[in-house]
Amino acid sequence: MNELPPRPTQSRPLRRRMPGIRSVPLRLLVPNLVTLLALCLGMTAIRFAIEGSIEWSVSAIAAAAVLDGLDGRIARALKGTSRFGAELDSLVDFIDFGVAPAIVLYVSGLNEVKSLGWLATLVFAIACALRLARFNVSVDNPETPDWSKHFFVGMPAPAGAIVGLLPVYLHFLLSDSAAAPHYVGLEIVYVLGVALLMASRVPHFSGKSLGRVPHDYVAPVLIGLAAALLLTINFPFQSLVALSLAYLGTIPFSVRRYLALSRQHS
Predict the structure, then answer these.
(1) Distance CA 160, CA 129 (A)
(2) Which parts of the chain sit beneath pLDDT 50?
(3) Alpha helices of the chain — where are they, by DSSP H?
(4) How many CA atoms lie within 13 A of 49 on its CB side?
(5) pLDDT at residue 14 in the model
(6) Distance between CA 164 and CA 126 in Å, rounded?
(7) In this structure, which of 70, 80, 102, 138 has its CB flanked by the most CB atoms within 10 Å?
(8) What is the DSSP letter of 200?
(9) Which of 36, 31, 34 is nearest to 81 (CA)?
(10) Domain spanning 26-265: which CATH class is it, in words?
């Protein structure tokens, strides 16, 4: 009796994923979207500066600074921190707080001295780039003590942008006064001083540890934030002047605290 030959079995096609393609959790995308929105604000600030709308340009940079403070907290809250997000944030910070403020400073007054004013804006942008590069290197340094994480080495880029635009705020507030002088030389010295603070190793207080508010202080903090928001909306340039001066006033205290902790832990 002849046996029938075995029927050929049809092998099921193997379902393989294309190499390099994988799903990304949504919690990783949200912080990056906030960072990209900050980039759009920085580019829009440059456009407003070119068109002569200095007030809107400053507002866009200030809004980008607010988003820069939020994207990291959002990433940590959603557990969506990543190396890609950190690199993207650094690149966006250079545009928002290095290039955009430099162009605003040049267009709003430093262009009166031509090459000298442009040189000051170049130094400002270079100092911001050096500050961000040093920060990226120091993040992965395992020898950094825990107590030093409460300080920034050099003025942070967002603070440098807000504080560096102080001559623009003053010039805008005094523009209605016929007797208001315009000292371009002092503005150049001030911009170079802020650039030096960004590129230096002068310690500044870090706000990254400000994430939790004690239960007893929730109401006062909410009232203070609401009052600050209302003042900023109604008196934007006055509020930015006060904020810049207040931040500059904290630098001696941060240096003193840093040196005290350094001596204590050494």
Answers:
(1) 12
(2) 1, 11-12, 14, 178-179
(3) 26-51, 54-77, 83-94, 100-108, 115-139, 157-164, 166-173, 184-199, 218-234, 236-265
(4) 27
(5) 47
(6) 14
(7) 102
(8) S
(9) 31
(10) mainly alpha
pLDDT tens for 75-95 read: 888 777 788 888 899 999 999
Alpha-carbon span 203 to 251, nearest angstrom: 8
Do 144 and 138 meet the contact criterion of CB atoms below 8 Å apart? yes
Q: Report the distance separating Cα 250 and Cα 1, nearest Å.
A: 101
Which pLDDT score, from 0 to 100, does residue 135 have? 87
User: Residue 127 CA to chain centroid, in angstroms?
Assistant: 14
What pLDDT is stored for residue 5 in this prediction? 54
CB neighbours of residue 235 within 10 Å:
13
**CA distances to 82, 135, 201, 203 from 261, in Å:** 31, 21, 16, 12
Write out pLDDT tens, residues 174-228: 876 544 556 888 999 999 999 999 999 999 988 765 556 666 666 777 787 788 7
* Nearest to 136, CA basis, from 91, 178, 103: 91
Structure tokens at 21: 């393609």
Domain parsing of the chain, residue ranges: 26-265
CB distance 171 to 191 below 8 Å: no
Instruction: Enter the pTM of the model.
Output: 0.84
Crossing angle of helices 115-139 and 157-164, rounded to 10°: 160
User: What's CA 118's distance to the chain center, in Å?
Assistant: 23
Q: How many residues can be counted in the chain? A: 266
Q: Regarding beta strands 151-153 and 203-205, do their DSSP bridges make them parallel or antiparallel, or are they unpaired?
A: antiparallel
CA 78 to chain centre: 20
